[in-house]
Amino acid sequence: MSGKKQIQVDVEKAVGFKYPVDKVEYNRRDLLIYAAGLNLTDLKFTYELDKGFSAFPTYPLVLPLRGKGHDVNSYAERSKMDNVPGMPAIDLNRLVHGEQYFELLAPLPAEGEFDLESTLVGVFDAGKGMIMDRETIMKDRAGKPLAKMISSAFVIGYGGFGGPRKPKGENVVDTPTTQPDAVDETKTTANQALIYRLSGDYNPLHADPRFGKKLGMKGAFLHGLCTFGISAAAVLRHFGNNDPAAFKSIYGRFASPVYPGETLQTLMWKVAEKDGVTTIAFTTKAKERDLVVISSGTIELNKSKESKL
Question: Is 111 helix (H, G, I), strand (E, B) or coil?
Fold first, then answer.
């Protein structure tokens, strides 16, 4: 008797699992490298002696893979998902980054040591695959929460186990069909992924073209979180006066890969304003192919002294 092997998943056992606390650190040099990886040019993000020097708000997204220390690390070792109760062993070659939510809870310091406390908050059956939602809270060593991250991984071929379907998230807004209120274009460089990976994501797919070609790609492609950060920077420039204090949260779905050298075109719509928070919908495209690479994008911005919302 032949046929596809049935995936065994016990959702009740898996959801709520707490991963070991991850000790991480960063310094000003790390913030400068991240800013370079996003093609930022404002001195407050790119020059440590600027009087307003700040971490770009989405920087914590690199920490779960970066870990502690400043040398390169093993992507496979940092990404493994073993020993989760009720879950099968996950083949990392079948795992893709599907969605990302990030919320800034307090201003980021320019350097320090921090704890990442992660919980598996959702396991969903998507038919052709399985969705795993992992929530990570970044805290300083005094226990103060600084950021919340929810990463959704789609595991190809692991669906059909009879689990729940994922509902539409509360952070998702419908993208308008009208003309955008603003459009931003950022030309990525041929070595964009090689610069961005220095922030801590050393997945070979973003450096060695042979890996990408094995998966049917043209070669190495850009990190989704690099495109995500460039999109956040575009919205902050156009609607937040480039003030990091205006940033509240961002959500997006990774729809297609971007190849280094392509132009990222971010289309933005102001869709709501309530209780001092402005909601911006955005879609990011690879301009040369007119292809959506981030869909259902949503950013929330707070009013601040610098902001002209």
Answer: coil
